[in-house]
Amino acid sequence: MSDERLTQAEARGVRYARELEGHVSWLDTFSGTALGVLAVASGIYTYLGVSSLLEDNGAMSVFAAIAYSTAVSVGIFVFWSYLLRLFPAVRSSGARAGLFAAMGVGSLAIVAMSSWLNAAALAGSAAVEQHLATTVQDYQTSLERAHEVALSGQALERDVARVRQSFQDLSEQEAAGTLSGLAGRGAVFRVLTQKSEELAALEDQIASQTPLVDQTFAEGNSILSRMRALTVEQGPIAPRSVEFSEAAVQLQGLITRLRQLSVATLVERAAQDLAASVVLPELDGSTEASRGSQQATISSVLDVLASRAQTLERAAQAVQEMAPAQEVTYTPISSADAVILYARNFVPSWAGAIAIDLLPAVLVFILAVTQAAIRSGRDGAGVEDTLTLAELRAALSAVRDMETATGALDRPAVAPPVPEPQPETPASPEQPDAPARPVSEVKPFTGGRP
User: Fold this and answer.
1) Which residue has the higher pLDDT, 354 or 60?
2) In this predicted structure, what is the pLDDT of residue 137?
3) Which domains does the chain have, with CATH numbers?
4) Distance CA 227, CA 221 (A)
5) Is 184 left (phi over 0), alpha (psi -120 to 50) or beta?
6) pLDDT in tens, 379-390
């Protein structure tokens, strides 16, 4: 028998291969259906992703989305069907490398034409909401920075008030006669009063803008609260995005107003004019000595004035050198673009979208490993040793049919037998119509030979 020619290890390998072949045959009964289901599911999500990209909702757009998703489903089914059949069947390393490269290129093509659209369908709305939330955060940072710069400018009011108070105190001292030695409201007093009034006017101007800054900042926070609510409200994302865009325009205007309310530039110009524009009054001392004293006092006042103006100018410049509020512009974005832009935040959705398209690759490798195991189990066994009982019966039946056909063709052709002639007998009395022949006309029988 054929089993006697097999070693024990080879016999186990043949049984192992037959067992695997049975499993593969059973799995083949529904593998095509499963692959079709995966392809159709991917096509459905692709349709949803394509629909989100099309601006028009007419019949042509629906037809275009259906055509694209159908092409994707067919392409996925055909591509993986080829690989499920061919990749496990090839044996050479070169052929496997070529098919593996083809599978890599095809997988990238599937991701490019389907997976990102699947991700858009799975997490498109959430990605757009993420975009809105990020934009709100940027606007909040910009608003707070603009408010901080504006408050720093308003803080210059204290510096202006301190300088004004110093000149006011000096004018009071001059009125008492402790500066120039001349009591009263003479030339020195008028110079000090002049600068004190200028600084008081600047101080009032700065103070008048404080309520505007607070009001603008409060309006900005109110708009931000509404924008935050839009990011988490229930319902379609498209109308919320439109309302969000309108609120973003209003908030951008408030941020610009806060920048304009900064008084740092105004204080800097006032500090420069403080020392440059001094109207010197006529010395009104009664004697030459008193006029000299007034002149010396005025010179000292001008030096103090220049020093205080320089200090105030540096404070204003420090405010101007602060980093301004960042320019923020809200740009509406589609769900597909949002999924790509915020891909890190939606890794599970991306994984599911790619897995539904590339899961058949795992089946390809499983079949390749199984077919390699089947071939390994059959190594060393002849064809006659691997036949099953049913295959052997079919083979024997085929051999018998062939022998029967061959025997019919080889048998020599035999002429049909010639019947022997029977001796003629005289007509019976029951046949009166038969003519009588004379005895002399009857010839003896010679076996058919004349």
Assistant:
1) 354
2) 92
3) 2-122+346-398 (no CATH), 126-334 (1.20.1260)
4) 10
5) left
6) 655 554 555 666
Contact 267, 160 (CB under 8 A): yes
Q: Report d(CA 205, CA 260) in Å as an integer.
A: 14
* Cα–Cα distance measured from residue 120 to residue 237, given in angstroms and rounded to the nearest whole number: 13
> Is residue 149 within 8 Å of 324, Cβ to Cβ?
yes
The confidence score (pLDDT) of residue 344 equals 86
pTM value is 0.65
What's the mean pLDDT in 370-394? 66
At a CB cut-off of 8 Å and minimum separation 6, what does 335 contact? 49, 52, 120, 124, 125, 127, 128, 237
Q: What is the pLDDT of residues 275-296, one digit of tens each?
A: 665 544 555 555 666 656 666 6
Tell me which residue has tokens 């006011």.
168
Counting every residue written for the chain, the total comes to: 450
Per-residue pLDDT tens for 172-226? 766 665 555 555 556 666 777 777 787 888 888 888 888 999 999 999 999 999 9
CA distance 214 to 261: 11
Q: Which tokens in the block code for residue 86? A: 């061919």
What is the Cα–Cα distance from 58 to 51, expressed in whole angstroms? 11
Q: Is the dihedral of CA 157, 163, 167, 172 positive or negative?
A: positive
